[in-house]
Design brief:
single chain, alpha+beta, Jelly Rolls, four-stranded antiparallel β-sheet, 14 helices, 11 strands, 57% helix, 14% strand, globular
Length: 447
């Protein structure tokens, strides 16, 4: 352990002497406060905070990721190029200890820098409302919709299998099967139509959603119903009238609280309701009524309704988001060390940047290749797609996706990401690096 620690401390000193490391650190120290003061977002306090958190986290993530790649590659390739490694491997230190020490040094440096810059971001975020001239309404809004960690519940998907089978058999008996359409394709169309019917309400009709195990931290808190409408015919003012009933529908008469609304179509809105409307056993029913004032069918898209409730604090959520960023840096450090064991510095940088960019846009890459995969089925299915899926999905686990909309980043998800990204993928990268470096010929003896 003493050998590993010695290599780690030497790696930190070596990294701090790099000019590019100093440039990145100075950039973040200067830019983060400037962004905290200058960014206004949409002009509201909530918009200002969301914009600052999103851009500051993205900038910190990007610069520290690039710094991690450069330092982890440079620290080994430079030792080999300058032949300093000869004086190391001739001492009683094994090659795997050398790699572990360099990885530990990069991780410790990342941890210190990440703690510093996340503390700057957190400080500016928390103190912005105190120096910003905001009204009571805006302060209450950011307290409920930003400085919190809200869990999300979505309605379970309705099973329409039986209805589809019955509709198909009815058409088959009456001889109304469309020509040129297979049974599978017809059932797909019927399934899509039946699911759409379950999310649509004609004038005077109601839709009901039921949720179980809704657990809030405090029954005196506020519950949010987030929804978005679509319509069959656009109203003249593009507004939809509605009545929402929230409460326990199992009682007789139902214990509902009603809320009349007028909302724009195709726009997400949030309805605030008291959390004490949730039953003691965690049951909650939500009923939407398409009131007669409308003259159109109201349709909820697949992501058109969810229940949001406070499940944790902003501070705890922020700490988990920072840990998520640290996991990414640990993976990149291991990737950089692996590349430096068999590639030169420029080639290793290019290789790691390709992996980093692909992992950052993995969702986009998969969608693009899925589209092209229709013509490249074999090549895509057995080569490109498995490679992309092996990489960590940085875009899927982006901290901004949780902090900006005040969504809960749970400890369960964090442990899952740590297990997949650190315990499996990073461990495999490090193991492969040790194997390659163990058999690499550092120098030749010429007589």
């Amino acid at each position: 352990m003493r050998n590993i620690w010695a290599v780690a401390t030497n790696t930190i000193r070596q990294a701090l002497r790099m000019k590019i490391a100093a440039v990145f650190i100075i950039l973040l120290i200067v830019l983060l406060p400037v962004m905290g003061v200058s960014m206004t977002g949409d002009g509201t306090l909530k918009g200002r905070l969301q914009t600052f958190v999103s851009y500051s986290l993205s900038l910190t993530n990007l610069l520290l990721s690039l710094l991690t790649i450069i330092v982890s590659i440079y620290t080994l390739t430079n030792d080999i190029k300058q032949r300093q490694i000869y004086t190391v491997i001739t001492k009683p230190i094994r090659r795997f200890q050398l790699l572990l020490g360099k990885l530990l040094g990069v991780i410790l440096l990342n941890t210190a820098l990440l703690a510093l810059f996340s503390a700057i971001i957190y400080t500016f975020t928390v103190y912005t409302p105190k120096i910003y001239d905001a009204g009571e309404h805006e302060l209450l809004q950011v307290e409920n919709e930003f400085f919190t960690a809200r869990a999300s519940l979505v309605p379970p998907e309705v099973d329409v299998t039986q209805e589809v089978l019955e509709a198909y058999e009815e058409r088959k008996k009456s001889g109304q099967l469309p020509p040129g359409l297979s049974e599978v394709e017809l059932k797909k169309q019927l399934t899509k139509q039946k699911k759409l019917d379950k999310r649509a309400a004609i004038v005077g009709q109601q839709l009901v959603w039921e949720f179980n195990n809704v657990k809030v931290l405090d029954p005196n808190e506020t519950l949010f119903i987030r929804y978005k409408y679509d319509v069959s015919i656009n109203p003249p003012d593009e507004q939809v009238y509605s009545r929402w009933d929230v409460g326990d529908s199992r009682q007789y008469p139902a214990a509902f609280s009603s809320f009349m609304r007028k909302d724009p179509i195709r726009t997400f809105r949030e309805l605030k309701v008291p959390a004490n409307l949730i039953a003691d056993d965690g049951y909650l029913a939500i009923r939407f009524l398409n009131v007669p004032l409308n003259d159109t069918t109201v349709i909820f898209p697949p992501d058109g309704l969810e229940v949001l409730y406070k499940a944790d604090t902003f501070t705890a959520n922020f700490i988990r988001a920072v840990l998520l960023m640290l996991f990414r840096l640990i993976f990149l450090a291991s990737l950089g060390l692996l590349a430096s064991t068999f590639l030169s510095f420029p080639v290793a940088i290019l290789f790691c940047l390709c992996v980093f960019v692909t992992a950052t846009f993995s969702g986009f890459c998969l969608e693009s290749f899925d589209y092209l995969g229709e013509n490249l089925t074999w090549v895509y299915s057995y080569t490109l797609r498995p490679i992309i899926l092996l990489l960590p999905q940085f875009d899927k686990f982006n901290p901004s996706k949780f902090l900006v909309p005040a969504r809960l980043l749970s400890w369960v998800l964090l442990v899952k990401v740590a297990g997949l990204m650190i315990c499996i993928k990073t461990f495999l990268l490090l193991l492969l690096a040790v194997l390659i470096f163990s058999f690499r010929e550092i120098a030749k003896i010429i007589i």
